[in-house]
Amino acid sequence: MMDTRDCACGQTTVRDEAARWFVRLQEPAVDVLEYQRFETWLDEHPQHRHEFQLLQSLWSAADLLPPQRLQALCETPPTRNQRRPLVRYAVAASVLTVALGLGLFSGLNHPAPYTAEYSTALGERRHVALPDGSVIDLNSRSRVQVQFEKDRRGIELVEGEAMFSVEHDTSRPFVVETGSGKVTVTGTRFDVRRDTGETRVVVEQGTVKVQGLDAADSDFISLTAGLGTRVDAQGNVAAAYAVNPAELTAWRSGKLVFNNASLSEVAVEVSRYREKPLTVGNDKVGNLRLTSVFKSDNTDALLKALPNILPVAVRTLDDGSQQIISK
Predict the structure, then answer these.
(1) How far are the Cα atoms of 204, 210, 226 from residue 247, in angstroms, in the given order?
(2) Which fold, 114-245?
(3) Which terminus has fewer CB within 10 Å in the chain: N or C?
(4) Whether the predicted model's global pTM rises above the 0.90 cut
C-alpha cells in the first residue's frame, strides 16, 4: 500500500500526484511556470521521481497492448464515474501494474512503431515522455520528430535544442539526427543544439558516438561525460573538448549562464528567447567578454544590465530588434 502524503490539494497518494503531472505533461503546451512546479515536485521526495518514472514505463508498456485490451484494463466500474479523471488514470495505472506482474504483456519483446512530433514556442520549455521510457526536454523554439521502429529509435532535431535522457536498450540504438550529423547511443544523457550551420553536442552522463550524417560507421568521435563537440554544415566533426554540462544545460531551469562568453555568443543565445533578434554593432563589441547569470524569461533585465557591466549601450532599430553598440 502506498503511503499518503500531505500536499496543497489535500490528502492524496503520491501515485495520484504522479498521474496528475504525467497527464499535464502530455498536453500540447506546458508553460514555464508549470514546468518549474513539476521540477520542484520531483525534487521534494525520492518517491515522487520513482512514481513518475513508473508511469513512464507503464505508458511504454500500454502503447504495446492491443487497443481492446488497453480499454478493458482502463475501464472503471460505473459507481466510480464521479471520481476525478486523473484519479481514474491512477487507478488504471495500478491495474496495469498488476497486469505487468502477472505477465499479461506477451508482446514486450516486439516494440510497436511510434511516430510523433513535439515543438515549443518562444519562451516555452517542454518535458516529453517517450514510449520507451526515455525523456526529451525541449528548449525554446525547438522541434523534434520521433520515429521508433523495431530495431531503431530515431529522432530528428529539426530546430532548436533538446536534452535527451535515454532509456538503456542495446537492441535498439537511440539515434538523433540534425541535418549534417547524428548522435548514436544505447542509454545516456546528453544535450544537442542545432544552430544555423552547425550542431553542438554535450554529454552529461554515459557515452555517445557523434559522426557526420553520411560518414562511414567507423568514422566517429566518442564523447563521455564532460565532453562536447561540434558538427559543421558539411558533416565534419570537431575533436572532443572539455565542457561544463551544468552551465550549457542551465536553460532547463530557466537560466542563461555566461562564463567568459563573447558578446557575439551572448547575442545569439539571447535571441533564442526574444521575439526580435539581438545583434552586435561590430567585431570590437562582439569580442567583449561577459561572465554572469540571467533568467531566460527576462532577457530585458540582461539588456538593462549590460551597460553597467561593459562599455556598451543597447539601441533599438527600426524593425524593433535591438543591437549592442560601443558606448
Answers:
(1) 11, 21, 11
(2) Jelly Rolls (2.60.120)
(3) N
(4) no
